[in-house]
Amino acid sequence: MSEDWKLELPDWKKANLKSLEFIHTKANEAFNYTTNVADKISSRAFTFISILIPILTLIISFVIKLLYVQNEPIPRCFLTNVIFICLLFVISFFGLIFIIYPKKFMHAGREPKELSDAQFIQNQNLNTEEQYLALLIGEIEGLQKKITVNERINNDRICMLKTVLTFLLIAFFCSIVVIFSYPSFIFS
Under 8 Å CB-to-CB from 93, ≥6 apart: which residues? Predict the structure, then answer.
């Protein structure tokens, strides 16, 4: 749906006030849903970051231990795999940060300068109900724009989260392969 959607009314002055208020209420619910989804995406990303930091710390400390404490030479294949796994974790970490910051979605409400259109408020040809109808129609159209933008941003963030999860799964399986490929070296 286009961000420039307009409420199609043949004669907006004859629009049913109750119907417009109902549409406005439902639009507010849809908008609140998009902000709740955005919060859930951020919450999941924070959860993965809180899991990822200790894992990354563990892997890095393990590699440092191997490099400086162990007297045996480290197989290049093993070191390459560990570096690849660390790289996947780091990419995932920054991907999660990118999902969380910056928050680029539309917020509730509008500023007074957006609502105070002199064409409707100071127009002597419009009575109070018509002025209210005009503001309500403008608010409904504004909510639709915000819903459309938030849905697009949420879809992009969900896609990024899926990509990060794919990287984490690859890193996890690579870790298992490395552990089973070099058990004597790891557990010595």
Answer: 49, 52, 53, 56
